[in-house]
Amino acid sequence: MTHCVEGELTPQSPAKTSCGEVAPCCDRNEGHSSPRATQGERRLACGAEHGTGCEEDLFFVSTKRRRFLGMEQLAKDLFEIGAVKFGTFKLKSGITSPFYVDLRVAVSYPRVLRSIAALYLECLQDFSSAFDVICGVPYTALPFATAMAVQGDLPMVMCRKEVKDHGTRRVVEGAFTQGSRCLIIEDVVTSGSSILEVVGALRAEGLKVDHAIVLLDREQGGCEALLGQGIGLRSVFRISNLVGTLRNLNLLEPGKVDMILDFICTARAASDVKRPETNVPSALPVAASSSSPVRDQLYSIAEKKRSILCVAADVQSTKELLGIADAVGPHICVLKLHADIIQDWTTDTSRRLRELADKHSFMLFEDRKFADIGNTVVAQFSAGVHRISSWADIVNAHAIPGPGLIEGLRHACAISGRMIGLLLVAQMSSNGNLIDERYTATCLRMAREAFPFCIGFIAQERLDPTGKLFVMAPGVQLDSKGDQLGQQYNSPEYLLKRKGVDFLIVGRGIYGSEEPAKAAQMYKELSWSVLHG
Ligand code: BMP
User: Fold this and answer.
1) Which residues approach ligand 1 with their CB closer than 6 A?
2) Least confident of 36-40, 362-366, 448-452, 522-526
3) Helix (H, G, I), strand (E, B), or coil: what is residue 213?
4) Model's pTM, two decimal places?
5) More confident residue, 280 or 28
6) Catalytic (active-site) positions
7) How far, in Å, is the centroid of ligand 1 from the Cα of 399?
8) What is the rounded distance in angstroms from the CA atom of residue 78 to the CA atom of residue 188?
């Protein structure tokens, strides 16, 4: 599987190509189908059969490269035709924004319209499900959907914004049957409300709608709001990607880019209008600025259970894992595990673990520390024996491969239809680790850009002064200063009071004790009282 937004394009990207070179949708395997074409037709469209692994690799490379080039060219085109502007703009809401997006102008530029359609068609490859029809959200996305329908030979339906008071009074025009699977096409998503309106109308007419593609995600909570309604969203660009691409093309100065990214972060935070009132302890980052459902859930559990404790259950059998989870469950907000050290892991392990998580109200954190290219982490996250995306609430990753890794995880998360939060490993507790201040600062920046999917860090101190991105700190124990293999321990008091971390991860100090339940209760009460003492 690949993903639509491949991360920012680098200045070293190969020479630009014209939009026309972006080929229409072609399929890599049976799992990724365009609405109509047969497998044979799709292979023909790609100009290659790809039966062997080697051919497949070449196929992936050329597909991705084509998408990169298409995105880069389109970013430039949108900038040049004034569909995306940078400066100072007063929005309808009264807010002053450093950028302005109005894609309606694209209809006057056939070449741009063609490349928009081509990139939507590329995005189709990211879906494992097939679609019978596509439907553009009126009005701006209607010509986009039409261009896509013509270019990709896809049947389309139209959803009326206003129902006529004469004639057929149909809400959905076109040919479809009950249960037809419909893919929504939208130009820009902010809150997701326009898409949801159309989804409501289509569902009321008997169509099945689970997915949408948007050209530009403004990253203001729309993706998460749609997921909450069962709609997986894929975007050609996220606004931060678009800005990064324009910076790499030297069309935006770095200073302006920083200002725009700060604005995006602030706007994301402000978009959380439905946040429940919570009485979160002062030393915790305040959920008031959150627009991340995963983060909100964690804070709500922490508050209800008066626990900022995460137990690292680093045991090696399902029986031990479930035993620890059940014993410490009442005292923790998160259970962290390494699924790959459980010798007898099966889907039953994750099922029973989830049952315990629901029973005791804690979240499951798979400490997988992803550290590969986006394409690989998508598979590591969603496939294999562990199928992490089907049960984990939180996962973590190293930032070293760059933003493509985060995009990959975000993509796999959207496809899974589950809400999962990401933590970046920005610092480590082990002696002699290679992370320096510059690396940590880059993690902070990447995490800000990836909020609300990225909700915080594994680190040893507070990193985000606003507290929006929280810190979970491992390396906590009262009775030891470290182990023989470089682990270093600090006390809860030191990490919470002096270092300003938000959650504590305790492993051997709890599961290695004689009575894990008692030890968990002690760490829970101690850390809570340090916060409130
Ligand atoms: P313990 O408290 O037994 O040392 O366990 C710490 C847990 O936190 C382990 O699961 C380890 O993999 C994890 N961890 C860590 O110790 N240091 C880090 O920097 C990052 C971690 O994830």
Assistant:
1) 312, 314, 367, 428-430, 458, 474-475, 477, 487, 505-509
2) 36-40
3) strand
4) 0.54
5) 280
6) 369
7) 17
8) 13
